[in-house]
Design brief:
mainly alpha
């Protein structure tokens, strides 16, 4: 990203990654 790291954006990205990992583990 061109902007400085935003804690809220980082949390949203982390939730997306965790969600994907959770789905992968369930498979």
């Amino acid at each position: 990203r061109l902007f400085l790291p935003n804690p809220v954006v980082i949390r949203q990205d982390a939730k997306k990654v965790i969600h994907r990992v959770g789905e992968f583990l369930e498979m």
